[in-house]
Amino acid sequence: MKFMIALEPGTDTTAWGVAVPDVPGCFSAGDTMEEAMENARQAIEQHVEVLIEDGAHISAPRGLAHWQADPDYVGWVWAVVDVPVEKYLGPAEKINITVPRLMLARIDDYAKSQGMSRSGFLVEAARSAMR
Fold first, then answer.
1. Which end of the chain has a smaller Cβ tally under 10 Å, C or N?
2. Angle subtended at Cα 102 by Cα 98 and Cα 108, rounded to the nearest 5 degrees
């Protein structure tokens, strides 16, 4: 799953701060931007695991424009990290759906062009539609 992260640039004496706006309470830091991003991946995975164990759900992410307009993040740098949290959402279920042949071909072509599977694309499209 892809997560938007906000990075507060560090200085010679402070680390890079990281907030994950779509996962309240999830934050991290690192001495470099790269380290901060890697630490953010780990923080997201651990935070999501605890949320799901506690019976909470993961909210659909908001768009970048929403967070850029938030005055709390003025001057922050934005990035997207991919964190494999799906393993905490329960086992995959096989479903049977009916889709017109032409639409299915278009879905498959688009998913392939994005380096995704058909299932991965449909899950991401559903997530985006439910925002």
1. C
2. 80
Cα-flanking dihedrals φ and ψ of residue 84, to 5°?
A: -80, 70
Q: In angstroms, rounded to a whole number, what is the distance separating the alpha carbons of residues 8 and 16?
A: 6
Predicted TM-score of the model (pTM): 0.68
What is 48-99 written as a DSSP string? HHHHHHTT--PPPPPPHHHHHT-GGGTT-EEEEEE--GGGGS----------
The boundaries of the domain holding residue 12 are: 1-90
Work out the average pLDDT over 125-129: 83
Residue 81 · residue 41 · CB < 8 Å: yes
Residue 25: pLDDT above 70? yes
